[in-house]
Amino acid sequence: MSESFDGTVDIQNASDAVTIVLDGDTGQVAVGGNGAIGRIAVSNGGGQDLIEIGATNGAIVVRHGLADGTFPEVLTFTRHDAALTVGADGRAGGIHVLDGAGADVFSVDGAGARLHLGGTGNEGDLAVHDADDRKVFHVDGQRAVVTIGAPGREGDLRIRDVDDRMVFRVDAGSAAVDIGAAGNEGDLTIRDAEARAVFHVDGQGAAVNIGAAGNGGDLTIVDADGRTGFQVNGPRADVTIGSLDGGRAGALTIFDDTGAFGGAFRVDGNRAAVTIGAQNPARGGSLSMFSDDGGIGFSAGGNGAVDIGTLGATGNLTVYAGSGRDTIRMHGDDAAIGVGTTFHGGHVRVFDQGDDLGIHIEGDGHTIRLFNAKGHVGIELNGVTGDIKVPGADCAEDFAVAGAEHLEPGTVLVIEDADVLSESRVPYDRRVAGVVSGAGRFRPGLVLDTQADTAGRRPVALVGKVFCKAVADDDGIAVGDLLTTSGIPGHAMKAVDPARSFGAVIGKALAPLPSGRGLVPILVSLQ
To answer: What is the 3-state secondary structure (H, E, C) of 160-195?
Structure first.
C-alpha cells in the first residue's frame, strides 16, 4: 500500500547524511550531496542500466540492447565538452524536431548522413552569423538559394582534396571560380538527361568541349537587347557573329602585342571586309597558307605582293564564271596565263593611269588592239585574216641624218655616206633615199631600226604615203607625175627629163601643185 507525504522527503545514507531529497512542493528531485556523488539509473528487468545520469562525469547516457546481448550507448550528452552524441555501432542515430503542427522540420539522419531542414508548409532555413552578427552563410529553402557573404564581408567557397590542396574555390572578392591546383588539374563536367558529358572544361588538356554524340553542342551569347550576338553551332559546324535578325553587325578583332588601334586582324561584317595589319602603330599584315609538305604555298603580304606556289609545289590560280567554268587560269609550271574557255571567250583589257583603255586582247575575235591617247585603235593584229592594221600611212626606217634637228618632216633626203643621210640639194640626184616622215596628216605606220637613246636620227619614209615638200616654179605638178630631187634644198620637183630621172625618182604625186612651193602627198616608190 502506497504512502503519501506532504512537503519534503529526505532520504539518508548509512551515515545519516541526506543524499536524496524529494520536494513535493517544487516537484524536484535532488540526488547526491553531503559527500555523496549523485547518480540516477533506470534499469530493465535484467538489471541493465538503460538510462543513466551521473554527476561523476557530468553525462547523460541512454543505452539500447542489441541482439548480441550488448547494450551500447546510443545517446550521450557530456558537459565537459558540451557534446551530444546520438547513435552507436550497429545503431544509427537520429535527431528530429517537430513544429507546432507536428511536422518533422529538423532532422539529422545518421544512417543517411543527412541534415534535413523544413517540411511541407514550413520551408527550411540555415543561417550562420559572424562575430558582427552579419548573416554570412544562408541556405534559403523557400527560394532554393545559397548565399555566402554579406555587406562588408565577401564570401568564399573552398573545397580541398585529400592532400589539402584547394582544388575548388569561389572567390566573391575577385569574382573568380578556380578549379584544380598544382598536381590536381581541374575539370568541370555537365551531363544531359542521358548522362552524356555535354559540357566539359578540361584543365589538363586546356580544352572546352560542348556537345556529345547524339546531342550537338551550342554556345550562344546574347546582347542587352536579347539578340544573339555570338553563336557557335555544333550541328551546323559554323560560327555566327552578329544578329541574324538584323540590327547588330558582327565583327571579329584580334590585337597584337602593341594593342594596335582597330586590331591587327579584323573581320568587319558591316563592311564585309577583312583587314590584316594596322596603321597606328604601323604593322604590316600578311596571309600565308602552307602546302602539304609544310612550305608556304600562298602568301599575301602588306607590301602588295602575292606569292602562289613554292619549291616543290607549283602555283596555280583559277577563276570561275557563274556557270562554273574556269575562265582564267595561271599556271606556274608552264609560266602561262589562260583567259576564256568553252562558251566564254576571253578578254584581256589593260588601262592607262587615266582609266582609258590602252590594250585589248579579244579571244573570240582573235585580235589584239592597241589604242592611242584619243581612244582610237592605233594598231590591230587580226589572227583570222593575218592582217596588221595601223592608221599610219608609210613604212619608215630611222636613219642618222646630218643636221637632223633643223630638218622638218616632208624634207627630201639623199645618201651622204654609208651611215648618214642629208638634205637633198641637187636636181635628179640618184642618191635619193626618201622623205622625212610625219608631215601633214600622215604619220608613219611602222618605223624600223629605232634607237631611242641615239640623237640625230629621223624616221625616213621608204614605202607608202607621205607628205613631201615640193616646188613647182618651172613646171606644175599633176596627180601621177614622177617626182625627183630639185635644186631647192629638201624639195622635190616634177621629173621632166626621162634620161636623168632613172634612179632619181622619189615617187608619184597624189595631189597637184600647179605652182609655187608646198606639201604634196606622194606615194613613195624609189626607182
So the answer is: ECCCCCEEEEEECCCCEEEEEECCEECEEEEECCCC
Q: Where are the domains of the chain?
A: 8-117, 127-214, 251-308, 346-389, 394-524
SS3 54: strand
Cα–Cα distance measured from residue 324 to residue 310, given in angstroms and rounded to the nearest whole number? 27
For residue 348, CA distances in Å to 286, 328, 329, 371 come to 29, 10, 13, 13
The H-or-E segment that residue 499 falls in is helix 498-501
What pLDDT, on a 0 to 100 scale, did the predictor assign at position 144?
A: 85
- CA–CA distance, 434 with 483 (Å, rounded to integer): 11
Please state, in angstroms and rounded to a whole number, the distance separating the CA atoms of residues 523 and 395: 11
Cβ neighbours of residue 33 under 8 Å, at least 6 residues apart? 17, 18, 19
Interacting residues of 379 by C-beta distance below 8 A, sequence separation 6+: 368, 369, 370, 388, 389, 390
Pick from 227, 187, 226, 224: which is nearest to 204 by CA?
Answer: 187
Burial of 399 (0-12, 13-18, 19+ CB in 10 A): buried
| Global pTM value | 0.43
What class does CATH assign to 394-524?
A: mainly beta
Q: What is the pLDDT of residues 305-333, one digit of tens each?
A: 777 776 666 777 787 777 777 777 777 77
DSSP track, 362-403: ETTTTEEEEE-TTSSEEEEEETTTTEEE-S--EEEEEEEETT
Q: Which of 114, 96, 92 is nearest to 106 (CA)?
A: 96
